[in-house]
Amino acid sequence: YVIPSQNITFDDIEKFYTDLSSLNYSKEAFVPRHTSFATNLTFANVPYIYKNGMWEPIEVQSYQRSAILVPLQGRHYNAKAFLLNLHAYFRRQLLTYAIFIIEQTYPMNKFNKGRLYNTAFNYIRQNKSLNITCYILHDVDLIPEHDSNYYSCETMNPKHTTSRVRQLIRGNYVKYYEFLIGGVLILTYNHYEELNGFSNLYWGWGGEDDDLALRFVQQKMCVIRPPFAVAIYTGTFESEKTLPHPKGQRNNQRFGLLLWSTIRLKTDGLHNIETLTRIVEVKRWTTFTHLKVNVDITNSK
Ligand code: NGS
User: Fold this and answer.
1) pLDDT tens across 102-143, in order?
2) Which atom of ligand 1 is least distant from the CA of 247?
3) Ligand 1 in contact with 215 (CB < 6 A)?
4) For residues 15 and 84, is the Cβ–Cβ distance under 8 A?
5) pTM given for the model
6) How is residue 250 annotated by DSSP?
7) What ipTM describes this predicted complex?
8) Whose CA is nearest to atom 19 of ligand 1?
9) I need a labelling partner for 293 at 20 to 30 A (CA). Which of 28, 45, 152, 281 fits?
10) Is 211 touching ligand 1 by the criterion CB < 6 Å?
11) Per-residue pLDDT tens for 247-277?
12) Which ranges constitute the DSSP H helices of the chain?
């Protein structure tokens, strides 16, 4: 695990992953500041290539093609720490993958994570040449600590891989409630469609993931989890001054929305996402695709 220096750029990361021979460069750019973590990024002993929008191991065939969906608003430093660490992680697991940073650019005040996920899912499924079979929904501030926490889709059930999160400031692990599916959730195309994705109605922090968990119950879907020993993450943070894992602006309406969640499954979700949001920019890097999204087209010009 490495904590990048504060002034790292997306270009630095791009260069690091496309030019692995420049070891000196990497030493300069990535200064590890937390001694209890390994100080080097290590890769599997398999070279990788970037081909048709995906990263693929050479001479190894992955049986799934995965898209990693990472919602964002501001917090670019978190996105850089994420890219830097997670590319190495995915490569050690020999995944065939593409990362999508889904950034909300309008409105600026309230975050709507459900709409961002639905928008990205809809975009990726229309991009048929990528042929994505596995969707990994990932918080930007979570870095997996254990290489045996496999980022694979199970065809029967969605998988929740975040049971414990280590917070750097307090140093201890936070264990979550049994019902939680937020953090990192890995599911197939069919699962996402059956659930009609996320509700589009949650503005601000909290609840949209619990709403999805209620959809699981309604669709008789069960979540599976890797062993407790490996389902460990580190929560990263924007700067050392802020609290780890910031909760942002809480949504005061979330409990009211949860109460009526089940009657909305068919009408509120992936099916009507095109009437609510618009992708305003697609920027293709080799290390990720950056989608900028207006999540409220009815209230913008
Ligand atoms: C619950 C929230 C979830 C959230 C979880 C963990 O209380 O949306 O905490 O949050 N549910 C409601 O507010 C109804 S965390 O500490 O990881 O930021 O995912």
Assistant:
1) 999 999 888 999 999 999 999 999 999 999 999 999 999 898
2) 18
3) no
4) no
5) 0.91
6) B
7) 0.95
8) 182
9) 152
10) no
11) 668 899 999 999 999 899 999 999 999 999 9
12) 10-18, 23-29, 76-92, 113-126, 189-194, 208-218, 254-259
